[in-house]
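Exam review. A common question shows you a sequence with its structure tokens and asks you to describe the fold in words. Practice with the pair below. Do the first one on your own.
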Amino acid sequence: MNKKAFEMAISTLIIIILGILVLIAIIYAVTGGFKQFQQTTDPFTDTATSAAVTQACQSACEQQSKIIYCCSEYEIDNVKIKCNDPRLNLQGCALACTDFECGE
């Protein structure tokens, strides 16, 4: 029995199987198969975004930066908010944006 021919057949078979698996993964991705994965990770990314925005706004408040606190817009879960939005629940921030113009 020709041993080299047998080894080549096994390696060729493995390469063909891997190629088919890659092709199936590409077809799955193109047809929108990863939407379910995105839907399961969205709550985690939205929470991380919310925490980052809250931290940035808290930092702007501590530094008394009215231009960032009053004018910068952030997007959380497709909703645009500013640091003075009560939903961010910033504690102890005394900055007021009532008489401040952003210059837009």
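Now try the second one, then compare your answer with the model answer below.
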Amino acid sequence: MGREGEYEKINEQRLQEITIAEAAHLREQAQKQLAEALNIEKKKNDETVEELEKTKGELNKLKQSLAEKESQLKEIEQTSSELNQTQESLNKKEKDYQEVDNSYNKRMEILAKEYEKFRIWIEDQASNSYGMVRFTEFTPQELEAATNDKMNTICLGIGGFGSVYKAVIGKTRFAMKTVSKERESLIKNLEDRLKDKKTFSWGERIKIAASICSALVFLHNTKPNPIAHGDLKPSNILFDVNNVCKLSDFGISRLLNYTNDTITPNHITQLPKGTPFYRDPEFEASGQLTPQSDVYAFGIIMLQLVTGKGPIKIREFVFRKLQTTLDDINLKIFKERTLLQQQKLIEKLLEDAKLVEWPIDVAVKMTSLGLWCSADERKDRPDLMTEVWSEIESMNGFDPNN
């Protein structure tokens, strides 16, 4: 019994030692786990602190950027305000300029109308008994007496068109020129011929159209600078004794230049010249003289050759007689009619009984070319050399007696 008690005592002692060791081991493990947990937390904390510092830095940058943006926004607002003020100022100046421009345009319109009235008045005066310039007419007897009947002894010179002699009338000495009888003189112009409807045949009219077209083709294709006549009209188309027509009066003709802005040679002027009703509407509006300006005048003359009418509203007259419209440049409506209908319309168009004897196809071609050439817009007019000349040449070979 005593030995069993000792064994129990020894077991209890060993059990206590084991419990203490386990407790120490458990304590050690707990401390170790706690240390590891602390390290993990410390590491997380350090990372959090680092992230916070980083976030703080980014926040500072954002604050700085925001401050810069606010500063820029203020500058933009200020600039916008200045731009608005500038725009208001520009709008006011534009309005003032528009008022000045409108006033200027009105003054220019009035001035142009007055100038046109004055120019027409001058022309009327010049054609009415030589206008304000009063010429003195002398009889052949007076002229012979002025040279003392000794023309051969006081000849001052001889030229290609005639001779110049010394003459005295009263107390005034002057030079008198006599035209050579052998020289082909210019005796009429187309304006005179248009009035003489009875003897002005279709064949002659076609020949004149061909001559004018040929002269214009030559002028418009000269090198290096084409030439625009600028004042083509019947009174500037003259005839010699052999009934050959000549183009005259190149007083306002211009050499045309090529520019980078357009492929069409042109001459720019602030004051378009020329004769009303023959002057290109586009030239009158823009001041840009081109070969097509002559084409327009040629078209009006072609219509005069067909109708014998004056130039005033001649296009409207022709369209009305042909029962078609102003925008029907190629006479499509007219050509769709029957031959009999065309003939009746042409008879209404032509006032001279002799002229209605022309073949319908030739009359239609002349009329069509005249309307085509005299189109209001330059882009709608044909080229004389490539589109018109061949048509006129084919008509020029027509024999009205055949």
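Model answer, second protein: Residues 126-133 have pLDDT under 50 and may be disordered. The first helix runs from residue 2 to 127. Full marks require stating both points clearly.
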